[in-house]
From TrEMBL:
InterPro entries: ArsR-like_HTH, WH-like_DNA-bd_sf, WH_DNA-bd_sf. It comes from the Bacteria. This is Helix-turn-helix domain-containing protein. It comes from Algoriphagus confluentis. The lineage of its organism: Bacteria, Pseudomonadati, Bacteroidota, Cytophagia, Cytophagales.
Length: 168
């Protein structure tokens, strides 16, 4: 969907990075993460900043970029990115059917805004339906062309590095 609307692959990567969750980054780090030249990343960062979709802040000598949450289209772009990634539907289905889920996290590459093709999740809860989990993994791959890896924990260790998408 996004690749038919936005022709620049680098711009798509930046939108995924900044609008899939609250993330920030700087030029060299982004170029390294995306395996792109700093020039192509710089051009797209400048375009997105000029459009008001990204804001910048100086941290020492480093210019940091992040999504402009005050932009009128922030929520629409965030929702479009989420749908592109297939996370909204995936999370809703998994959490509703798994049983007594206390918390659900996205971890790994997607939590960092990188579309690697594998969605890693951690579900926290007791007596969760692992048969359904095996079924939904196959269905999810058919629907969004992404592998799903899920780890189940009985309780939250408190140090999970990721995006809390369900629970408090």
């Amino acid at each position: 969907m996004l690749d038919s609307l936005v022709t620049s692959k680098t711009r798509i990567k930046l939108l995924l990075k900044f609008f899939s969750h609250s993330n920030s980054g700087y030029l060299r780090s982004l170029a390294k993460d995306f395996e792109e030249s700093t020039n192509s990343v710089r051009v797209e960062l400048n375009r997105l900043t000029e459009a008001g979709l990204l804001v910048t802040a100086e941290e020492g000598k480093t210019k940091m970029y992040k999504a402009n949450e005050g932009h009128p289209f922030f929520h629409e772009i965030k929702n479009m990115v989420s749908k592109f990634l297939g996370l909204d539907d995936l999370m809703e289905r998994i959490v509703k059917r798994m049983g007594d889920v206390d918390k659900a996290y996205i971890v790994g590459d997607y939590a960092q805004g990188i579309d690697s093709g594998t969605v890693q999740m951690i579900l926290v809860g007791k007596n969760l339906d692992t048969d359904y989990l095996n079924f939904i993994r196959d269905k999810t791959y058919e629907k969004v062309n992404r592998k799903v890896e899920v780890e189940i924990l009985d309780q939250d260790p408190g140090d999970i590095m990721g995006i809390l998408i369900y629970g408090k």
